[in-house]
Amino acid sequence: MRVRNKPWAKPYIEEHPNLIVTDPVPLKGNWQSRFSAVQPLHVEIGTGKGQFIVEMARLHPEINFLGIEIQTSVIAIALKKVVESELPNIQLILSDGADVDTFFDPNEIDEIYLNFSDPWPKTKHEKRRLTSAGFLKNYQDVLKPDGLLQFKTDNRGLFEYSLVSLNNFGMIFQGVWLDLHQANDEVEDVQTEYEQKFSALGPIYQVIAKFNQ
Ligand code: SAM
């Protein structure tokens, strides 16, 4: 996602240290202290403008949500939504999701969401894909043994790559959807900004998997 540089973004982020963390490493093992209640922790990597994570927090007051986003001008838009929501169970991190193993203790996270991750279609950029083996290793390090990884995308090539990557890592599939919006089951689908924009053009793919501990 490319957005124009927003001069207001950095000062706005600095005004809200209670809702957004820019130096996550010192909070390793202590993320529950950022929330008003100790409860399961779900993390979205590549949160974008925040529609998914804020709506999830609204629907699930029994869960604490953390959105990680690497771009300052993008997460500032998510932060606006978090501020307006006044919800006690949502926090943001401005940082690179590649480093989650340095932000969290083992077993600190119950669930990780990857929504419409950047496809990085060139083979030489494979390591940047959020479902490549290096990322999976870091997710495994911080997820609880039964913790779930949920990935959805409109990009068929990235989805095919991800199924192979998760399988080669030994993950166990809990569910695969080749057209999430036409699914007959009662699966919850809180839509992201990208999902709303691109679902008219083709199917949305989803996989939910856990690590084989
Ligand atoms: N999840 C949102 C949605 O579905 O509307 C945004 C999708 S957008 C295509 C991908 C987002 O992931 C961008 O905002 C990008 O900056 C962010 N991103 C990419 N790599 C990342 C990383 N390593 N750590 C954190 N965020 C990342």
From TrEMBL:
EC number: 2.1.1.33
Metabolic or biological pathway: tRNA modification; N(7)-methylguanine-tRNA biosynthesis
Binding site for S-adenosyl-L-methionine: 44, 69, 96, 118
An MF annotation (GO) of this entry: tRNA (guanine(46)-N7)-methyltransferase activity
Binding site for substrate: 122, 154, 192-195
Keyword set, alphabetical order: Methyltransferase, S-adenosyl-L-methionine, Transferase, tRNA processing
InterPro entries named in the record: SAM-dependent_MTases_sf, tRNA_(Gua-N-7)_MeTrfase_Trmb, tRNA_methyltr_TrmB_bact
Gene3D superfamilies membership: Vaccinia Virus protein VP39
Top-rank taxon: Bacteria
One matching Pfam family: Methyltransf_4
Region (Interaction with RNA): 124-129
GO cellular component, one term: tRNA methyltransferase complex
Keyword set includes Methyltransferase: yes
HAMAP family named in the record: tRNA_methyltr_TrmB (MF_01057)
Family per record: Belongs to the class I-like SAM-binding methyltransferase superfamily. TrmB family.
Biological role stated in the UniProt entry: Catalyzes the formation of N(7)-methylguanine at position 46 (m7G46) in tRNA.
Identification of the protein by name: tRNA (guanine-N(7)-)-methyltransferase
Organism in which the protein naturally occurs: Levilactobacillus bambusae
Lineage of source species: Bacteria, Bacillati, Bacillota, Bacilli, Lactobacillales
